[in-house]
Amino acid sequence: MNxxxxxxxxxxxxxxxxxxxxxxxxxxxxxxxxxxxxxxxxTELYLEEFPHQETQHPLLTTFEVTVNA
Length: 69
What we know:
Layout: E1 8-12, E2 15-20, E3 25-29, H1 32-49
Antiparallel strand pairs: 1-2, 2-3
């Protein structure tokens, strides 16, 4: 059975870091595609040991703050 999860990807120096907020898994790669593929593998391995309880997808939004330089 396939389930849909969220991947949040950010660049950290030379690597991309991908995180799954529903499960708490994370991985990295030299490209966005590699980071997401590694995250899929890490999440599948995690879920073999710790079955996922149904939850809603997180709400992802942005907000603006004033930064005093």
